[in-house]
Amino acid sequence: MRELETYNIEADGVQAQVHIQADEDKQMRYKVVVPAITPPTKALTNAVRDSLITEVKVSAAEILDPKVMDSLKEKFRLKAAELFKSKVPSIKPSTAQFLIGHLVHDMLGFGTMEFLLNDGELEEIIINSATEPIRVYHKKYGWLLTDLTMESEDRIQNFANMIARRVGRQVTTLNPLLDAHLITGDRANAVLYPISNKGHTITIRKFARDPWTVTDFINNKTGDINIFALIWLAIQYEMNVLISGGTGSGKTSFLNVCTPFMPPNQRIISIEDTRELQLPKFLYWCPLTTRQANPEGKGEVTMLDLLINSLRMRPDKIILGEIRRKREAEVLFEAMHTGHSVYATIHADSTNETIQRLTNPPIDVPANLLGAVNLNVVMFRERRRGIRRVYQLGEFITTEDGGKVSCKGNIIYRWKPSNDTMVPHAPPVRLFEDLSRHTGLSQAEINKDLATKKSILSYLVKHNLRKLNEVGSILSQYYLDNDFIVKGVTKNVDPKKLIG
Questions:
Q1: What percent of the chain is helix, strand and coil (3-state, nearest 5)?
Q2: pLDDT tens sequence across 456-488
Q3: pTM, whole model, 2 decimals?
């Protein structure tokens, strides 16, 4: 095996080493190396486990409540430390920490899988069955075969049950599908046998511990400064933005990256099936998530329920995870027309295809409503090179002929694949006109504002300010004290003087 990369990960105080290797057939593998436990030490650990079960009182509510899991783990750690010290007075603190971490993984977590969940380089973890190795999707190397397997189908089903119980649901032969969250925020999907023919399957999509920011997206060429300055302008002045793209093209990630552009004095309501958005601390944000019905068919909270309810929560901005159905779209466009600033995603591969998706079944909204959308960002994933790009930045143009309203797209910027750059395609037809009408800004003032935003974005890139709260702090102060930030950026002062 040829070594490609080695790095360390930690889970609950237990250190492990990851080896990315390639075999003679150039198939890449992911190997986790954890210090081995000898049989005598294993017997000691089992004895401590038995004592923990009898001595640590844990209520059903604590086991099922994700919010108290950290305090529950701490309770186990403290008691386990006492037990190890009483049984082996000479035990080293590092050894005790290692063994306690293993106990926490086995009793309250997912065993060796905890190392995969704590590897920030992984995007996806897949258990296909007990007969196959676990597979992972690595940010740098793509799909990798691991050296880990589940010991039995019962073990996989037990994991699925643990996930389900903590969100108040069941996954059984009668209800073999599960879509839920782990305590870490990661999204978990389970499909039980025989619906999954090979065996029980669990798919975990990792929640970004260090989320992308606009600096990252400019550096990796997902979009350029011109694109983000225009979107920032639209978001600041409460225009409506729709993000399109195929599966895995980066729609939600792009939306996430743009949220720090929102003013800190506005109320933001987000509505998602699964929590994926991560907004900076300075924003006034209320995240809402849907809920599926319980086994009796009761308690369901749909995206439409939350969307209608959100209009009663006095939002300035509404973020909708994805437009799927006609009624959702109608309520969303009604929100746009009643003065709310709306941001949403939809599956479509171009600006014109977005219009077709919206105006045909199953969404099928009237073309005249589309005039409320000020900008359409289209995301694209090129699988050959494994890159994601802003494919088009466009606007919707509605026209009327003989009483019939139609809509077409105007592409302002587009991605040029031959040299991997964003290039201007056509001038905006209505974007600046709408902006001028809503804000009273002249075209000269709009151009000056865009230039200022480009200089701030360039400053972020130049000083590699990429942490969410670093970016958030600069943009928050831009709204609170514009002159301070603009002067600091113009003079290229030390970022520490600008970050509050």
A1: 40, 25, 35
A2: 999 999 999 999 989 999 999 999 999 999 999
A3: 0.81
